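Journal club prep, notes for RB
We'll compare a predicted complex against what the paper describes. Inputs for the pyridoxal-5'-phosphate case:
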Amino acid sequence: MPGFSTRAIRAASRVPDAPQPPVNVPIYATSTFEVADAEELAELLEFARPGHSYTRYSNPTNEALERALAELEGAEAALVTASGMAAIHAAILSLLRAGDEIVIPRAVYGGTLALARTVLERSGIGHRAIDTTDGEAVAAALGPRTKVLWLETISNPTTAVADVATLAELAHSRGVLVVVDNTFASPALANPLASGADIVVHSTTKYVGGHSDLMGGALVGSAERVAAARGILVNAGGNASPWDSFLSLRGLKTLALRMERHSTNALAVATALQGAPGVAAVRYPGLPSHPQHELACRILRGGMAGGMMALELQGGREHGERFLGRVGVAVHATSLGSVETLVSHPASSSHRQLDDVELAAAGMGPGTIRVSIGLEDVEDLIADLVGAASPD
Ligand SMILES: Cc1ncc(COP(=O)(O)O)c(C=O)c1O
């Protein structure tokens, strides 16, 4: 009879049959999967047969999230990753190589710009940052080396809304592919593949998860494009954790409800802040004063505009810092898309890579505050944020 340790390891590894399927997807907390022979493993590692070999390659919990996101984005396939940045990195490296160029919005998430300036530059991939709300500027920027036009459905943090359908038509006519970061809208408000995007990426850390308790990312597109991105991810090692995929699956179940409440809360807060003492401007796509309000109404589902807004305070950076120190219901923290309202100062956090000139070009001032409206009672939020913005 084998010794106790041998028996314990075997006994504790037996996976029970579950004839009645669980209501929730189990967390497959395993790095590796037992195979029958060397041929099976070799084929699994090449994705030449269905199944799983090693969690860096694939995992059933991750696969469940991939299938769910593909379905909700109207895509053939999806790939989930360790973070939004891992998805962005895999998407870009699967489409560009040394000598190529990517065109990105000036008002892009700071992490995407930092990736372009560090990892991509070192790899010989150039980038050009332009105002992607200006169709002529986009047409002028697409050159012979351009392989990808990068867009954000709603930009971080200035909330510029991208006309994906028009820009995708232009890009495709020049042989350029379009990737859209759909993090701010989430799959509940927009499906950019239907407007012509070739790949859509998400930070699932944000609205998909929705509770500030996970890190994850995803990209969706055709089976061929997703397989190419998986090839990058497997070798670069940016796989999702099944624990975090479980939380993302749980988040997806309430995403529509949360986006509805984020949107109604945000519209009420933005309306109250507009013209409140100390507030110079509020940029929220749900407000008629927003430059792309009509486009937002057209492309965002159900007339909702999500929970993100940018706030310009009259007193610049000093006023912004005082605002952050005064909030009580809202939490001063980076990140977004969660049940709690989060406020941050892009110039010193998500966009710290930009100097004042670049901040201005991206539509931000040194005192711009990014607000991610949560699901709290709206009267409490209005009192908190209007009070914090007051100059006295
Ligand atoms: C629009 C957008 N895309 C991508 C990311 C990166 O996501 P992660 O922090 O999950 O890597 C963020 C993070 O703030 C974001 O706001």
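Talking point for the session: The two ends are 80 Å apart (CA to CA).
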